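Amino Acid Chain and Its Fold in Token Form
===========================================
Purpose: to set a sequence beside its fold so the mapping can be learned.
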Amino acid sequence: MHPSEEIYCEKSNRLRGKTIVIGITGSIAAVECFSVIRELVRNGAKVIPVMTQNAIKIVAPDAIEFACGVKPITELSGQTEHITHIGDPSAADLFIVYPATANTISKMANGIDDTAVTSMASVALGSKIPVAVAPAMHEHMINNPAVSKNLGTLAEWGVHIIGPHRDGVRAKVASKEEIVSWAIRLLSRTDLSGRRILIIGGRSEEPIDSMRMITNRSTGMMALALAKRAFERGADVELWMGGCSTTLPDFLKTKRFTEVSDLVEMLDMIDHDLVIMPAALADFTPAKKVDGKIPSTASFDIKLKLVPKVLPMIRKRCDNVIGFKAESGLTAEELEKKARQRLEEYDLKAVVANDIDVAGRSTSSAILVCRDGSKNITGTKIEVSDGILNYCAEIL
């Protein structure tokens, strides 16, 4: 058994049965290909690597072969590899150039075939399988009018441009997480395609002084899982995140808030088709915030005031709102009853009732409550997300 088989479907089976041809070109970002390929395999994909001669100078073909168990194609032969692997629509499901240099992007846009990768690209563009490029280069190179024009040409032809992420000096290649999410988005159901979905998650943090605060238990994991799955199912996703304990991917459009008042000020920006709100917002905030740090050697009193309820305010701006109701120590029947009360009080489409005793874990105990019934959607964060998004696809 090849070592790559040990990690096959280790993370998910969402790419199971899919064949992805990856073109590796001569950017220093090619060193990331090993991790990208392994991540695709962990999600069930079969990966066929193709390398330019310049890519071989940066990353060893043996390393790439170890990553996926397939010997890289470095030049075309009498076996017509470009036709065998790309020409038949049943052979490959996706062709992606990672990383894509300015040179390869420009050749693709102008029909130039002088490497194994550009020949694969020409056939892929002609065979109409999904094609994606992940640019990686210096900032000045991507600002070159010719390169910008060529990227635009590829986009007009339906090529998916993944990244890059600019830092003022470099146009950095997309992360392995972004590539996997794009692969899933391009190769699985897109029942939320064209829908604008807002996810509001994390916790609010109400300052007592410059050091201390009032907050709730929330890692932001549920909101992030929802945002990633909505993206993978084709939605135009925006994530508004308060305090969280998870890394936020740079490929999701994200806005941050701290206090409930910050979030309230953002509500005028809501013009989405649907809002899902797993955020854990504080019910109270200090009536007076202290400048500086209160000495830790003395006791002090805090007077609290109620903060406004945000869900009803969101409901005024969007017809399709799904809220969350977190409780502790209740039976399933009691939990559903609480959720239904919230549903009717705020006129929501649905409420996800969950047990706060599982906050921060990889799984969630959850019930989706809507007007005509309820459904137990307990499972991993991904499974709960899909349970919620299945309902969203039905109502949109």
